[in-house]
Amino acid sequence: MKTAVIVFPASNCDRDMVVALEKITGKKPHIIWHQDEDIPEVDLIALPGGFSFGDYLRCGAMAARSPVTKRVIEHADRGGNVIGVCNGFQVLTETGLLPGALMRNESLKFICKDVKLRVDNNDTPFTNAYAQGQVINIPMAHHDGNYFADDDTLQALEDEGRIAFRYVDDSGDATKSANPNGSRNNIAGIISRRKNILGMMPHPERLIEEAQGGTDGLGFFESMINALN
Amino acid sequence: MTWNNNVEITDVLVKEHGLSDDEYALCLEILGRTPTLTELGIFSVMWSEHCSYKSSKLHLKTLPTKAPWVIHGPGENAGVIDIGDNQAIIFKMESHNHPSYIEPYQGAATGVGGILRDVFTMGARPIANMNALRFGSPDHHKTKHLLSGVVEGIGGYGNCVGVPTVGGETNFHPSYDGNILVNAMTVGLADQDKIFLSAAAGIGNPVIYVGSKTGRDGIHGATMASAEFTEDTEEKRPTVQVGDPFTEKLLIEACLELMSTDMVVAIQDMGAAGLTSSSVEMASGGGVGFDFNLDMVPQREEGMTPYEMMLSESQERMLIVLKPGREDEAKAIFDKWDLDFAVIGKITDTGNLTLTFKGDIVADIPTQPLADNSPEYDRPWVKPQSKAELKNEDVQAPADMKQTLLKMIGSEHLCSRDWIWQQYDMQVMADTIQKPGGDAAVVRIHGTDKAVAISTDCTPRYCYANPIEGGKQAVAETWRNITAVGATPMAITDCLNFGNPERPEIMGQFVGCIEGMREACNILDYPVVSGNVSLYNETNGTGIHPTPAIGGVGLLSDSSKMVTIAPQAEGEVLILVGDTRGHLGASLYLEIIEGREEGAPPPVDLNIEKKNGDYVRAQIDAGNITACHDISDGGLYVSLAEMVIASKMGMKVTVDTGTIPSHAFAFGEDQARYILSVPADKVDLILNTANNADVTTQNIGIISGDELTLNSTTPISVSELLEAHKGWMPDYMSID
Amino acid sequence: MKARVHITLKNGVLDPQGKAIKHALSALGFDGVNDVRQGKYIELDLAETDPDKTQSTVEDMCKKLLSNTVIENYSIEIE
Amino acid sequence: MKARVHITLKNGVLDPQGKAIKHALSALGFDGVNDVRQGKYIELDLAETDPDKTQSTVEDMCKKLLSNTVIENYSIEIE
Ligand SMILES: Nc1ncnc2c1ncn2[C@@H]1O[C@H](COP(=O)(O)OP(=O)(O)O)[C@@H](O)[C@H]1O
Ligand SMILES: [Mg+2]
Q: Could you tell me what percent of chain B has a pLDDT over 70?
């Protein structure tokens, strides 16, 4: 599986994503600087976490308008696979590749902690290694992860099974108190209609070794190996 | 208003610049003439307490700074230690107290930015941040606002630059009501053959300015940091520096990229006193002169004067000496990262800092005497007296041990700090293997089996009660915390926060703390490699508690051997290491339960400290124990409760308290103690080894069930403990 | 010319900042606050001197960058 | 009544956001942008019906909460 990781000014989880992809695919991802005009042929493009352009104006807004992002959009339009984690998810909504927007957390605070996610659709290239409904532990670290979409969009996401991950409590229920940031319908991650694009706020790449406190993030990458190799 | 560099230098003007008569006389002697206004400004900031260390130098010199593993000690931007494999750890701690009081968010944020630059300017990639915070009483009307702003500022900056904030400490005490302490520490990683220093060299070499443009930010910040607060300080509201972490992140990447080439001769961040101190340090350090054309300095505002440019504390700027002819190559890197880049001058053989502005020379100062002949004071000090020993008979037994313990761990002093650290990205870079909440933070050296352990500590109430013992204890506690995760303590940085040094009793506290630190560093073989002094933390004549914050760093050569404070399984046996005497003087028990701040602090026997710590570390290394926690604030019962909270497993503790009153046994703060959790089949081994090493140990209980049972105390359920521990800070912060 | 741009959240889009301000105001004892909405205010200083051209350029800026039309409205004043 | 509050950075205070927006605009091909400053815009809906009282209440709100007077200015319009 060939992969590429896009680096924007002040991306800061790019290395973590590169390490995770290399560990799982055995191949070093291409590292693409935001001003590069071309992306080599790859099976997957990853938009990493961080604070692209300082998250000034709106998170992901400036990165979404970077030269390289046009190439990412073309790749996605051709059916190519794209993942966006944290800031990457924000970039994806800003480009319109995924619907909705990520607003300031309800508490207005940056929150870094482990959260429980439920896999609500395991029939995607990014989730097939998990069981349907499986509850996994994944770290989150963001200030603006409060997912918003209007009622119609939300309904469509639900009806089309496009909610990949939801914040849940220990027993797997998407309760209000399990919702760390105020996201509508406890949404932590969504996929595109064609299932080739995934955006999620929490960071699976931070939990792929026992030393990091667990390996629940591995399934995310293993899914892609299953689907894309 | 037109600017006049040649105004008459009146007594008033000299005074306004904080220079004493003697200092001004020295300035005249160095120049051999009256200074220009720009020169006066330069002397003023260079000789401020903050930049010149004039009150503290004499005493700082007595600290041990050497060890075979120390590559660079104090004197460089940060300390450098050898961790093998051609790798080095570079670290330092610095205060941003005054700015954080005036504008907590920006003050704390720029504090983080400043300490990051001190570390990456030496060629290191920052891999961890720490923060040691002191606030006033929770009841003080400003505390909530300050706590909230400081934490948000630290997170706002550190999270954006992508360096994990992995730990720290947080105290509350009324002595900080008018002077909070915000001490930030950065730890970085470099290759030993790629360490960069600031001494300039090479006559004719170009001097480059990179980063952000210069504005009128924080002019006189360095002198402000050296002056006592008065009621009207808040009214003056000096131009606050605003941090731009986005630019800092670009600056880190651009500088590291530049340093991976062979173009750099010397590099120095612009910290306090900006362009002035960076250029004087670089020039005097290399015994050369600098010729600057100030018109070339990138400026954010119109009409900036040389005075303003030289004194500005705008953030995110660096000064670099390049090899000749490499300007274009270097510029290409900074262009890529969208940062300002300007050749502002060159190195000369005059030894002078010569500044030209619009064709005129506005300053021409010999840098060597400016830097090296700066004033140095042997300020009068009185030998601090230790507070009288408190007798245990004078401390009442609590009515209800269970409620007492719950009250203690639910107090502002001992409650969980997760409200704070949740606002910090603790895991970015994916190498954090021990997050806040334990004894030391542990961060892996990327791609190796090694890891660094980091802890910041100081117990100001001990330092106040007895500066010498307090100084020892602060050093010893970091050493112990690092030991408790299994790492070998290597070196410390410090941030010495004190009141007004012109008062002999405050100076006595300073001298006393240094004496204690010195002894501890010597005996523990744990040198000081960098540090910072913050004086005049005083409002209307009331000083803070003496607070020599220590940041310790240790190395785990095999990170898989690390332990945490959480026992792993039912049936593990709890072993208490060290002697328990029930010392309640200056303890948290006394403060929280009795509302008394009295007594001498627990004495620190450094030889026992070393013996016990070396024993514990060896047991961790041998894989004989599954969890370890040192005993500090709150004593034995609090430490046990913290282990229960971390593991969510209960304990049954039965311990013979001998002749010691049970509350003194429970909450006394005797030093050099640890609790180990040990698999049942290792207990004999552990006890025998301890015996051979002449280390006191005691089998005190077992991991079992979901309650904490302490002798005859009513059992406390794990959930009760968790709730009491978690609640205070979120509750406090949510009440408007 | 100078342009002043206001960017506000669309109706129906929840506004965590506004909500928090409202809450904090009431905690400070300010009663009778029915609603608070927080938006952005951007001042632009442009070399262009023609008002119409400025208007259309700034509109373009709003669409392309300054606002996220999924959740935000914008309004422009030229001066 | 409705009150509109503008909160802007004081002159001379660095505005990292404005700087980044300016830069992004030029990367998008918008030339001739001399300067960009970003501020906040807050709309308040208040039960009070007296303009003078509203003005003084909102001023109080600005001082106590809405603006950080160390680095920001505020201006109020009542309607
Ligand atoms: N301001 C802070 N930021 C991050 N972590 C903190 C902060 N204050 C305290 N902590 C963490 O809380 C835990 C307990 O702190 P403390 O009681 O000072 O530990 P110890 O007694 O072991 O030195 C430590 O893991 C420490 O790193
Ligand atoms: Mg400890």
A: 97
Sheet containing B627-630: give its strands across: B627-630, B674-678, B573-577, B697-703, B651-653, B707-710, B716-717
Interface of C with D in 18-77 (CB under 8 A): 18, 21, 24-25, 28, 30-48, 57, 60-61, 64-66
Closest CA to B437 of B643, B153, B144, B158: B643
Q: Looking at this protein, which amino acid is placed at residue B460?
A: P
Question: Which residues form the pocket of ligand 1, taking CB atoms under 6 Å from any ligand atom?
Answer: B 131, 133, 167-170, 417, 420-421, 436-439, 441, 457, 481, 632-633
Coil, strand or helix: which one is A209? strand
Give exposure, B3-32, as e/b (b: 16+ Cβ within 10 Å): eebeeebeeeebeebbbeeebbebbeebbe
| Predicted ipTM of the assembly | 0.94
Token pair listed for B62:
């007595």
Check C71 against A105: CB less than 8 A apart. Answer: no
- Are the C-beta atoms of B159 and A110 separated by less than 8 Å? yes
| Residue appearing with tokens 């550190």 | B158
Token duo for residue D70: 């160390």
User: How crowded is residue A71: how many other Cβ atoms within 10 Å of its Cβ?
Assistant: 18
Local confidence band at B225 (pLDDT 50, 70, 90 cut-offs):
very low
* Tokens 């501020």 found at: D39
Contact B406, B721 (CB under 8 A): yes
Question: Any residues with CB less than 8 A from the CB of B196 and at least 6 apart, and which?
Answer: B121, B122, B123, B259, B264, B266, B267
Question: Structurally, how many domains does chain C consist of?
Answer: 1
Residues ≥6 apart with Cβ < 8 Å to B74: B60, B63, B65, B528, B529, B530, B531
Give burial (CB, 10 Å; 0-12/13-18/19+) of B302. exposed
How would you classify the pairing of strands A44-47 and A3-7?
parallel
Which amino acid is residue D40, in one-letter code? K
**Tokens standing for residue B598:** 């009295």
Q: Is B72 a catalytic residue?
A: no
Kindly report, residue by residue over B368-386, the tens digit of the pLDDT: 999 998 899 999 999 999 9
Task: For residue B545, give Cα distances in angstroms to B460, B513, B592, B597, C72.
Answer: 6, 12, 17, 12, 51
Average of per-residue pLDDT values in chain B: 95
Residue D24 to residue D26: CA distance in whole angstroms? 5
The identity of residue B126, as a single letter, is P
Residue-range definition of the domain harbouring residue D37: 2-78
Q: What is the pTM of this model?
A: 0.95
Neighbours of B284 (CB within 10 A): 24
CA distance A69 to A64: 6
3-class secondary structure for C21-65?
A: HHHHHHHCCCCCEEEEEEEEEEEEEECCCCHHHHHHHHHHHHHHH
The Cα–Cα gap between B704 and B224 comes to: 56
Q: Map A120-159 to HEC letters.
A: CCCCCCCCCCCCCCCEEEEEEEECCCEEECCHHHHHHHHH
CATH number at residue C59: 3.30.1280.10
Cα–Cα distance, B189 to D50 (Å, whole number): 62
Round to whole Å and give the CA distance between A47 and A71: 12
Q: DSSP label at B379? A: -
Q: Which long-range contacts (CB under 8 A, 24 or more apart) does A169-174 make?
A: A169/A116, A170/A116, A170/A135, A171/A135, A172/A116, A172/A118, A172/A133, A172/A135, A174/A118
By C-alpha distance, the chain D residue nearest A59 is: D17
Which domains, and CATH codes, for chain A?
Answer: 3-228 (3.40.50.880)
CB contact under 8 A, A109 and B432: no
Q: Classify residue A41 by burial, with Cβ atoms within 10 Å: 0-12, 13-18, 19+.
A: exposed
pLDDT, position D70: 87
Q: Are B476 and B524 in contact (CB under 8 A)?
A: yes
